[in-house]
């Protein structure tokens, strides 16, 4: 592997991004360190996913810069991507392949020995018995858990979750929440984008409120999160619920 | 640059005004007679088209790797203007061919090459129009590939078909014919520069409008 | 300001209509071997082709200039309209 | 790391294809129907038009190639898995090479069916110089897939991509089609004209070198949004 890249901080420095005439993000600045679970909270379409995509080096900011341990992604090269894990809204799974084949492919893609890792991942995703079934036959919850394991296979330093709880029942939500806490305590930088207030409440260590591409507040999580969220984001905070999934 | 536009446009206009006089005074060609004089408007349009393709290719390369909006505007402008000059060539060519070879369109090498390049750069415009956000990078790829394919198109089509007067005729032009020819080439090149400046300016204003929309949203 | 610049370009181009009739065939010589007198029949069918070719080039350039000008005006109007809405917000 | 990733991507694509053979069967069927359509157009009173076989073969390759490109990348677009690939630690052009090899294999299989079929139906002596024919087919297919794979990959996130792919692809690969058709036609004559065929293979080779390099070079900037 081309040298171990590691970083102890992720800095978003005055980042803006627009698509043609639509501004997705305006002057976002925030920093995260190992052990943080930063909640990117905001209604749908606030620009959370755009920020997550840019943090994952899949898109470049129109203005401003993102630094990993003080260095820009361009300086760190492809090796940086071994330290980034992304669970996107679209789950990034091949429906035709089985759960085991999906995990094996991505493990090898990251240059890891798949055997031990895949079984362990299937176990913690609760899919050990269905490892050889095609993913197309899985429910949304099962796919979500499988995709979660896939994004953590290579032990990333920076873990990016975009709406990780959609389609999960309460039991699955608490499993995933515990998994995040364990990750953070083991030194990962976790950034969680969601519009679902209740889930984030007990989990995140810091909250960044984003609306219409603008960072409204960035402060440590405190019990009064819900009231403050509604006060800042305005009455329709709850209205931002997804149509089916979530709580 | 901006203040140079006025005089440049004036000179271009004057040169285009003077071109017919120059061409009219040029000698008669023995075998093809008067129709050969289309040569003075047909060939320079290729010179201008290939220059525009070159500008578009280089600007696309710059935009793709350096993501500079300015290079993108120049690439878009040069792409459009390459299509314009290509159109001129593709119309004046058959007009000349009609008399000289008796038929409007023949699969002659030069015309086929021009047609292929014209289609390539029209596809560049189409991708900008229908490609949605991020299509400027895709158009840049078309610009680069369009430039890279020119030698291959030349080679393949030349070997395949050619009854076009060899391009070697240009250097052997006598002084009395050379004069008006290079005058027309200069006029076309100036027209290219003037159109480029106008189109880039349009691109700049469009970007300013987008900027205003963004500012308006803030 | 852009209007004035365009007018300059337009007026100079307008001069073009004058030369359309200046097509007397003078003598010459070269690899494109010119000949001093050309039978009228050969000459006639060629003249319209030549004029059409020249006219097309001129018209194509003018249509393009006009299209840039029209798009420019559209952009300027939109900007003016947007600029007015800006202060009110 | 570079070729390992390319090999992994290829193996993954083959594994997916092996589940359903969907893209392969549709491509083959489309290629066959292409040839049939041309057959009706170019055969008068049972006699095919002189050396139409070369043209028909290459047009069928180009059309079925475009179809296969669209289908293959539609599959990557479905779960946005192309983004997951872009997150792989290997340099991104490795993904392009993996995809390119997949397309070459697919079109190679299609050609294995197309060539005998065209030879049969148009009484074309395609097999008179098998080595040169393979050279032409390889050169042409690599050129087509090199540009096609890049354009298909970059169009994944563009709107109206399935109409844009042929629009962008065909003008650029015309030299490949000309070289392929003229080279193949040279082989079909009563006594195959080898020097011409070899010349066209040379041109195809040059095209492939230039455009594979260009594609590898521009793949990363084109895939970053």
SSE layout:
The complex is a heterotetramer of chains A (247), B (218), C (89) and D (225).
Chain B (H helix, E strand, L loop, with lengths): L1 H24 L13 H28 L2 H32 L8 H22 L4 H26 L14 H43 L1
Helix pairs in contact in B: 1-6, 2-3, 2-5, 2-6, 3-4, 3-5, 3-6, 4-5
Chain C lengths: L1 H13 L25 H49 L1
Helix pairs in contact in C: 1-2
Chain D lengths: L1 H19 L1 H21 E2 L2 E2 L3 H27 L2 H6 L6 H29 L8 H25 L6 H28 L5 H30 L2
Antiparallel strand pairs in D: 1-2
Helix pairs in contact in D: 1-5, 2-3, 2-5, 3-5, 3-6, 3-7, 5-6, 5-8, 6-7, 6-8, 7-8
Describe this structure in words.
The complex is a heterotetramer of chains A (247), B (218), C (89) and D (225). By secondary structure, chain A is of the alpha/beta class. Chain A has a single domain, classed as Rossmann fold (3-Layer(aba) Sandwich). Chain A has 8 helices and 10 strands. Chain A has a 6-stranded mixed β-sheet with strand order 6-7-8-3-9-10, with helices on both faces. In chain A, helix 3 crosses helix 4. Chain A is globular, with a radius of gyration of 18 Å. Chain B has one domain (39-217). Chain B contains 6 helices and no strands. Chain B has helices at 2-25, 39-66, 69-100, 109-130, 135-160, 175-217. In chain B, helix 1 (2-25) runs antiparallel to helix 6 and helix 2 (39-66) packs parallel to helix 6. Chain B is globular and about 70 Å long. Chain C has 89 residues and is mainly alpha-helical. Chain C is built from 2 helices and no strands. Chain C has helices spanning 2-14, 40-88. Chain D is mainly α. Chain D is built from 8 helices and 2 strands; from the N terminus they run H-H-E-E-H-H-H-H-H-H. Chain D has helices spanning 2-20, 22-42, 52-78, 81-86, 93-121, 130-154, 161-188, 194-223; strands at residues 43-44, 47-48. Chain D has a two-stranded antiparallel sheet. In chain D, helix 3 runs antiparallel to helix 5 (93-121) and helix 3 packs parallel to helix 6 (130-154). The model of chain D has no long low-confidence stretch (mean pLDDT 90). Classes of the chains: A alpha/beta (247), B mainly alpha (218), C mainly alpha (89), D mainly alpha (225).
